[in-house]
Amino acid sequence: MTSPTAPGPADSSPARRSTGLARALWVLSIAVVVAALIAGFLSRKWRAEPLPVIKQVPEFALTHHDGSTVTREDFLGGPWIADFIFTRCPAICPRMTAQMKRVTEALGEGSQVKIASFSVDPEHDTPEVLAAYAADHGAGEGWYFLTGEAATIHTLCREGFLLAVDASPPADVSTGSDPIIHSNRFVLIDAENQIRGYYDPFDEDELARLVADVKGLLR
């Protein structure tokens, strides 16, 4: 009597081997596609398009919160960030300053990136008032709070930085609204005093992009 033939290993069948090979090729193709997508994402993330050159910051001479005179030439040699605020602003300006502080912390103490906060209410914001404001918000060395003639700063804001400002409403903070309407954008300027970008300080993605763009200019 002939004994039955014992079954072979599970993968010995040609059909099963073909199915296993097809499955392996399918998994490999998926892995290749995923790897390509990841590589493309990283390439776009870490090799971003160069920042545009928007315009040159015009010359200015204003008063630092320590009483000294600061000009455009004091910012040459490294990227810097600017915004326009005023100290008795009851709403948006304190938040802008807090967000700018976050940017300085993200860049680190050794970055040497300067900050310029121009007051759009210079008649009230004397160097003494600005110095107290800077201290209250923990502004470190390299953060300039600048004041001067109102017409000069408003022209600098509109024509120099292409930002909106309207001081026509009466300067009355008792209403709980900003008495001076102005842009809340942060502006990135390069080492040659050329504007390279505008950023919404209350958008976390844009704030992160600002930090990344500053580091890109530093490189």
Account of the protein in words:
The structure is a single chain. This protein has about 220 residues and is an alpha+beta fold. It has two domains: about 15-45; about 55-219, Glutaredoxin. Helices cover about 40% and strands about 20% of the residues. It has five helices and ten strands; from the N terminus they run H-E-E-E-E-H-E-H-E-H-E-E-E-E-H. It has helices at about 15-45, 90-105, 125-135, 150-160, 205-219, and strands at about 55, 60-65, 70, 80-85, 115-120, 145, 165, 180, 185-190, 195-200. It has an eight-stranded mixed β-sheet, sandwiched between helices. Helix 2 (about 90-105) crosses helix 5. The protein is globular, with a radius of gyration of 29 Å. Residues about 1-10 and about 25-45 have low confidence and may be disordered.
Portion of residues within helices: 25-40%
* Spatial order of strands in the largest sheet: 1-10-9-4-5-6-2-3
Gap between N and C termini: 85 Å
- Kindly report the CATH topology of the largest domain: Glutaredoxin
Q: Give the overall form.
A: globular
What's the total helix number? 5
Estimated structural class: alpha+beta
What is the element string, with H for helices and E for strands? Answer: HEEEEHEHEHEEEEH
> What is the number of independent domains?
2
Approximately how much beta-strand content do the residues carry?
15-25%
Our Rg estimate from Cα atoms comes to: 29 Å
Tell me the name of the CATH homologous superfamily of the largest domain: Glutaredoxin
| Mean pLDDT figure | 82
